Amino acid sequence: MFTITDPCELKAADIYRQACTVSSKTSRGTDSHWYRMPEELPWQWHLWFDGGREVCSATFSKTHQRWQSGPTLPLANLTTGEGVSEILGELMSTTYFSDKPKALGVILHVADEFGLAEIAQAGEVVGEMGDDFQILRYNLVDDPREVLADRDVSVESNVWRLLPFWGASPGQARCTAVTLSRSREAFLQKLLACAEELRIPVRVAVSSAAVESLAALPLLLPNLEGGGLVAIGFYKFTAVFAISPTGELRTARSLTHRGGSLVPSGLGDILWNMALGAELATPKVLLISSNSNALQSAVQELELYSLTRQPIQFETMDLTERTVLTGMPGHRPEFLIYDATAVEQIRSGYTPLAKTETFRALWSGWARQSFMDTARLDHLYPTRRDLQVLRFSSWFIYVLVFSLVVTGGYGTWSLFAAMNHPSWELTPYQMKLTQDKHKKLLEEKRQIDVTTRLLQPRSRGWVTLEFLLQLFPEDSGVRLDSFLYNVEASRPPVSGPKEAKPESTGMTRTWTLKGLVKPKALELLSTLNSQRGLSAFFDRVAEATGDAAYKPESSRQMTVTLTQGRSSRFSPQASAGDLARDPALAFPFTFEATITQTLTEKDTLSLPLEKPF
């Protein structure tokens, strides 16, 4: 197993070598599971412990939405990290999942401690409105000493994460810091090292079970409304959360169980004072625990407090009797918020607490925030984009080397073939015969090319008739008196003695039309009086006849000269008999048009000046 070094301590060459090692010995460059959060992976392993003798182990198949008991893990192994490879090998089989896992998300739910620390910068960064806690959240992760009120803290043994109070009243604390010890990170570090060695993507997270239990409250009791205290009992402590009448979190406290007691001492006084501090009119308490003896002890103490001191309304919830936790390993509510289907059902239904900002924020990530700084560990490795670029560069080098080898081999073979060609053994007489034959073939090819160009069809009689039909369709109101079509070669330019003689000459085609028209036919003639209309007409003739000579191109110029006038022979009073004798009496206008198409010497139909023979 290789050792990873912080890139900030390495030179550029060493960083490159380390990246190559990571790319070759791990699957980080090809497997996207390395860059996902544990709760996003389809295969998850959840560990819950409260300081007792047993560790609750559960596996969750996110694809199939199925929970089941996971491999047994003694509490001592959670501390020492023994047997990690055996457990990981068991998890990566089909024993606990329907399909063979390709990655594993490990989430450690810490339920044996729940410490709260005061924030020094809450008022400066968040302000009275408390709209944005993200800056304070990131500062608490990067440099806790600059954020906490107590600056004499040990960042080597403890870690802090922010818990906002979305429903805090003006003048009250807007947030607090939840603290956990780092004593369980050794187990996760060994798990990560073992996964690296096996090239298995394993993503880990450490979460606070108390905050997760608070987030699961709407799933446990959908009809619960705000305006009370929620006391969640664990083996070593009780977490108390004050919920405002609107369902927002106002404050939180951690009550330690001392002397082996199942409930904290002075529970009634603490809850009463906490209700007054949270501005709750009537103290209402919801007691939650999976230990029926602990619930009974809490009930007895609150009943005695209500009789002797102040009245407190309370009700209990035994987690082992909740229907929603049936089939859930250990009846742990902390696992519920990782079931996206269950959370979405509560979010979309009519649940008072699910509509509040507090629980929407908890479900969006505040309850699942990891107390282990895995981001700093990920920064030691190259990013996925860096590894992809490295792989691409490696392939590019292989392709480049292969191309050089192929080019060198082809060049060597070509040189060898050229040096061993029979032409090297030809005598001067044979070379002269070959050259004469080559010249003769070139001359024949030139003659064929010139002849082919000369024989190209440039002017067809039937196409000229179709030209007239396209210009004047049937019953268009035109009487044609004369039509003349002429084609001639353009005069080649005179070249000087030092200039190269032109290879071809252009060609000019002219259509001259003269006749009588009726008013409706004047529109046909007017369309020809523009370059666009003239080009469209020639394009229509080329499409109808298939003659490429009429196709408008840049090497062809088209012009038109159109003259219109009144006919002196027109008689509006002419009878049918008069029109039968002289049809010209029905046409009020005369026209004369000359259409010219000039093909330059660069046109494909230009005439070659060179003689073929």
Walk me through this protein's architecture.
Keywords: Membrane, Transmembrane, Transmembrane helix. It is a single chain. This protein is of the alpha+beta class and 613 residues long. The protein has four domains: 26 residues, no CATH class; 269 residues, YqgF/RNase H-like domain (Nucleotidyltransferase, domain 5, 2-Layer Sandwich), CATH 3.30.420; 43 residues; 140 residues, no CATH class. 36% of the residues lie in helices and 21% in strands. The strands form five sheets. The chain has a five-stranded mixed beta sheet. It has a five-stranded mixed beta sheet with strand order 11-10-9-12-13, with helices on both faces. Strands 14-16-18-17 form a four-stranded antiparallel beta sheet, with helices on one face. Strand 1 and strand 2 form a beta hairpin. Helix 1 crosses helix 14 and helix 16 packs across helix 18. The protein is elongated, with a radius of gyration of 47 Å. The two termini are 85 Å apart.
Give keywords.
5-stranded mixed β-sheet, alpha+beta, Nucleotidyltransferase, domain 5, elongated, 19 strands, 36% helix, 4 domains
> Which segments are poorly predicted (pLDDT under 50) over 5 or more consecutive residues?
none
Global geometry: elongated
* Class from secondary-structure proportions: alpha+beta
Strand content: 15-25%
Question: How far apart are the first and last residues' alpha carbons, in Å?
Answer: 85 Å
Radius of gyration: 47 Å
CATH architecture of the largest domain: 2-Layer Sandwich
- Amount of helix: 25-40%
Q: Total domains, how many?
A: 4
Number of helices: 19
Mean pLDDT: 86
Assign the CATH superfamily of the largest domain. Answer: YqgF/RNase H-like domain
| Largest sheet, spatial ordering of strands | 3-2-1-4-8
State the major sheet.
Answer: 5 strands, mixed
Transmembrane segments: 395-416
Keywords: Membrane, Transmembrane, Transmembrane helix
